[in-house]
Design goal:
- The protein has helices at residues 7-20, 69-72; strands at 4-5, 25-33, 37-45, 52-57, 60-65, 76-82, 85-91, 97-98, 105-106.
- By secondary structure, the protein is α/β, with parallel strands linked by helices.
- The protein has a single domain, classed as HesB-like domain (Hypothetical Protein Aq_1857, Chain: A, Sandwich).
- A 4-stranded mixed β-sheet has the order 3-2-5-4. The protein has a 3-stranded mixed β-sheet with strand order 1-6-7. Strands 8-9 form a two-stranded antiparallel sheet.
- It is globular, with a radius of gyration of 13 Å.
Length: 107
Amino acid sequence: MTVSLSPTALERVRGFLATRGSAVGLRLGIKRTGCSGYAYVVNYADEIGTDDTVFDCQGVRVVVDASSLPLVDGTEVDFVKQGLNEAFKFRNPRATSQCGCGESFSL
């Protein structure tokens, strides 16, 4: 199993973590929501739990809980800027469809 960060996401996450100071990494998870069933949840990882899996992306830890791991296996997290908008984008090979707004997906 793997989760990775693109070079632009890696740079952005490093900046977020440096500003925060106390986080041990980036937490990536899934919640049931949206018109397609699942949505990504991105937050600071303040601790690593016993059921968490940790991926090292060039020195940045990406922490995924056990229930989210099968749903995000193989996902690459990217960071894109388009004009004034900027956001994390997810390339999940397991996703079979995505809603029109891009906020949720299904498997």
